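Why predict the complex rather than its parts? Because the way molecules touch one another can change local conformation, and only a joint prediction can capture that. The input here totals 519 residues.
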Amino acid sequence: MPALPRLIGTGGVIAYRALFNWTTPAMFVGTLLVGPLFQLLFFAYLGRQLGVADDGFYITGNAVLAASLACVFGGTMAVSNERRFGTLGHVLLSPRSRTAVFLGRVLPYAANGLLIAVTTLTAASLLLGLRVPVDALPGLLLVLAVAALACGFFGLTLGAIGLRFRDVWLVSNVSVALLLLLTGVNVPAARLPAWMRVTGELLPVTHAAEAARRLVAGEGFQAAAPQLAAELAIAVGYAVLAATLLKLFEAESRRRASLDTL
Amino acid sequence: MRTLRMIAVGALLHAKQLSRSPFEIATALIVPVVQATLAVYLFRAGGEPGRLLEAAVGAGLMGVWSSVLFGSGGAIQNQRWQGTLEMIMLAPRPPALVVLPITLATALTGTYAMLATLAWGRLLYGIPLTFADPLAFAVAVPGCIIGLGMFGLLLASTFVLLRNANALTNTLEYPIWLVSGMLVPITALPGWTGPIAAVLPTTWGARAVREATTGSGPTWPSLGICLAISLACLALGAIMMTHVERRARAAATLALA
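Output of the joint prediction:
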């Protein structure tokens, strides 16, 4: 295998196994599969009771959002746990491209996120009786994959912030809560104030949730494509931001000798 | 009297300790406020602007439950990590009486969530804090918190037996919010959830607080049932804690993380 793909692929998988806290079967199933499903049911029943939107709105939106938990916390762990386990210095001493090392770490989390989103969507559709058109499935899979990738790069951006600020877990917890509010997954975007809508459009999940809803509604891939493209742009934007912040904060940590400060 | 004093002083000590953690405090304040905002917009979108106080109180109760769940669930493990588990188990008191103040403290720090959501609702959304029965509300909230603290002891003693307690903790947040009717009325849920809801102190505590807020029913019976179930949980938790402690001493596994 050529060196760069090996660094990104194999390196990413090794880092995932070493740094992701939730890989044991119990943690994986409990936290990443069952947790998001209950979150979906909570909002679906609340939405039903308040008459805000139908089940399809909540099932599709929350299935896309389900990817964010593994990706946002995973991205944070990909950087912060290196520091916690005392291995950050070793990684940064490596003569390989820092951008390749860290961006490669997002791929296993994105794959993880995709698995969680698909499982959540399937389970919720069976439980609440949502019928997804068969011809929408390939497009839906693509949308979920792009959303997971965008969430992964968003998580890596938060992880990079962890090089500068010590309470990165607080940032991750608050970010996950804000995704619930700002992405229009649970409150229709039209019902949110303008500043929340604008903020939401700069976050992952928002555009993917909209694209997924169009596909589930049977509007076809053409109708979902603009939102899918917007989600992809968000993913690229966060990848660039994460790489920039990692470079910037690494240089600053070296200058201030605060690399391993916990 | 000495026992009550010990519990009160212990709870205060642990509440102060938890309040020194910027992470705990910020999480207890910020996340419930985000959830309260979400609830407010959902209730507005659903054409229920008259129920915004109910939404803010419900979001606050959700924050209290999260604090109890994560705090009590990790109570023993946190003592292990701090290296203080042996010290508290050496105390010449039943282990339940030593751990109960910790779980009560997690419920106490959960009140930050309730205060934050009410203040947020009042200041930002102008939600009038007009409780149908202010006296009942003033009693129901602390009663509910004490009840959840006692329930926390059962969680702490159960979770210490489970190797993967963290997984259970992460899983139990939304189901209890849902089944207890903190925001979603129990009547909107499938019928089979009814018996589960009926044995949870969170259901009756949330109901008592909601009744005091909206005047939808008499607060005191619900609060009484909440405390009665919580006392049963306390007794069960105490038996389990004694069993766990003896087993850990016999197997020399008390300090094993």
